[in-house]
Design goal:
heterodimer, A: alpha/beta, globular, B: mainly alpha, about 55% helix, elongated
Chain lengths: ~475, ~70
């Protein structure tokens, strides 16, 4: 197997065993960045010299028998909204505030585990959008076909990991912003339980809904990245003190007897036939591995997305209000509207949406997870749209299409539940599709166990986009 | 579904010194706000005992209390 085909855990094992040096791996990734960046525009900055110097240091440490941990010498890159001391994050916008004087806890924990940061990645402006368009940085494009969106808002993470430019990426997920880019690029994408991973030093969009998320090429890769970043952070009062499980070990368990819930309502409506075929295949795979498929009614399903928006709109307006007042012209028009919608949300409505949250969560968990162990549903019920179909001034159906993007994801941000997008095939347009697993709070290990079982019986995660096709269709 | 007129949104925006909001933007904002309010109102009509005594800060403890056995 060639270096670009390795998963993160395979690359980490090869570096640890000194079958390959960290420098060789970083050089290989940098070469691919040079080839792919003009086609997909995944990176905002590439920090080649710094990454190579860090790789040399990692190799020197290994030569003396010292390993920093699971990610020693492995190149990653993250959505350009995680602060690093002294560096200005663009946050995808020309209106971004000045650089921070502190490094985000997620980056600090990745550093401590030995990861190498190769650069920073494209994103939707201020994480306010699900398509990957960006008027300031340039649109991010899907490596499987550059006429199509990479989704967002963690657009660069999906494009960079899928094109094998880095081995994993952190983004943020406030309505599907990690799961959607993962779904449309053939990756695994985890939105952890709210409180499982610290938000300190991550650009806020919506204080009570935001959560850092992970994009990677296998369930094991997600497990490794979660393992080193999960857990209480004294600087984030909304992180949980619950113990962090051994996610890597959980991958080894069988799913025989596990109850996989198939929604009776809402989530399987408005699903395209080719997406449904892939979903059905994935259900068949899980059943063949011993899972028990059960029908489940999902309460409140038709309201969850808008309940989430009541919080996100209001909190985003709180963050952006002062900046909009002075710098509205620096925002792209559609982003400006999203940032400003909360200006007209009445305060009692916002508070009621907050008060409803634990109540609806309790009802949801009781009803759904009384009947099953994990929910299985689409991440995105339609084939990946093109950039033109979802761009400002596009066809009349543009807003309808954009609304469909978050139809199956945003509700779980409101409920704070863990959700994992898992690749499960391709639609008729040749682009990837996926299923989504949702579990009870803090059940990431169970979701990863199901994903690993599915992965062991399929080869979707081994498929990779080919640059020749991307270049041909690149504008 | 009830409508929210753009003039009201414009007035709210002006009160918050958002002078850049124009008629077209106000209409888009109104559509988003109406849908979000409707979802909250519909959910409040579900039987929710104890709702009015819940503190929004209860959310993380609620998540933790509902966690199953950690693997």
């Amino acid at each position: 197997m060639m270096l670009p085909d390795w998963t993160l855990t395979e690359a980490a094992a090869a570096i640890a065993a000194r079958h390959v040096s960290s420098r060789e791996v970083v050089e290989g990734c940098l070469a691919r960045v040079s080839q792919w960046q003009p086609a997909v525009n995944a990176f905002v900055t590439v920090m080649a010299e710094q990454a190579l110097a860090t790789a040399d240091h990692a190799d020197a440490e290994l030569a003396t028998g010292r390993s920093r941990g699971l990610l020693h010498g492995v190149p990653l890159a993250h959505k350009d909204m995680f602060h690093r001391a002294g560096r200005a994050a663009t946050m995808g916008s020309r209106a971004a505030p000045p650089p921070s004087d502190a490094t985000s806890t997620v980056l600090a924990r990745l550093d401590a585990a030995g990861a190498i940061e190769l650069g920073t990645l494209n994103m939707c402006e201020f994480a306010l959008g699900p398509t990957g368009h960006n008027a300031f940085l340039g649109d991010c494009r899907n490596p499987w076909n550059t006429d199509h969106i990479a989704c967002g808002s963690s657009s660069g993470g999906g494009a960079a990991v899928a094109a094998r430019l880095v081995f994993g990426s952190f983004g943020s997920d406030t309505g599907g912003s990690v799961r959607l880019p993962a779904s449309v690029t053939g990756l695994y994408g985890l939105k952890p339980t709210n409180g499982r991973v610290t938000r300190t030093g991550m650009m806020p969009l919506s204080h009570s809904v935001d959560v850092p998320g992970i994009l990677a090429r296998s369930a094991g890769d997600i497990a490794a990245l979660l393992q080193v970043t999960a857990g209480h952070d004294p600087t984030d009062a909304r992180t949980s003190r619950l113990p962090v499980p051994d996610y890597m070990r959980a991958l080894e368990s069988s799913i025989a007897g596990l109850r996989v819930g198939i929604p009776d309502n809402y989530f399987l409506e408005r699903v395209a036939p080719d997406v449904e075929r892939a979903l059905e295949d994935s259900r068949r795979v899980l059943a063949s591995l011993g899972a028990q498929l059960v029908g489940v009614r999902v309460p409140y399903a038709e309201h969850l997305t808008e309940l989430s928006r009541a919080l996100v709109y209001a909190e985003a307006a709180g963050v952006h209000g002062p900046w909009l007042r002075d710098r509205a012209a620096d925002y792209a028009p559609q982003v400006r509207v999203r940032a400003a919608t909360g200006l007209a949300i009445p305060a009692p409505v916002y508070l009621q949406a907050q008060q409803l949250r634990p109540v609806l969560l309790e009802g949801f968990v009781r009803e759904v997870f009384g009947a099953c162990d994990v929910l299985h549903l689409p991440t995105l019920g339609i084939p990946v749209p093109t950039l033109a179909e979802t761009d400002v001034g596009g066809a009349a159906a543009m807003w309808e299409k954009i609304a469909l993007l978050v139809r199956c994801t945003a509700g779980f941000n409101y409920l704070g539940l863990p959700a994992l997008s898992v690749p499960c095939g391709f639609t008729e347009n040749g682009l990837p599709t996926s299923f989504q697993l949702v579990g009870r709070p803090f059940s990431e290990a169970t979701l990863l166990r199901v994903a690993q079982a599915h992965e062991s019986a399929t080869d979707w995660h081994r498929r990779s986009p080919v640059l020749r096709n991307a270049q041909e269709s690149a504008r | 579904m009830s409508k929210l007129d753009a003039t009201t949104v414009l007035q709210l925006a002006r009160l918050q010194q958002q002078e850049w909001v124009d008629e077209a933007t106000a209409q888009r904002i109104a559509a988003g706000v109406v849908a979000a309010i409707a979802a909250v109102m519909a959910s409040l009509h579900e039987p929710t005992p104890g709702l009015l005594t819940r503190d929004p800060a209860d959310f993380l403890p609620a998540l933790e209390a509902l966690a199953g056995e950690l693997e």
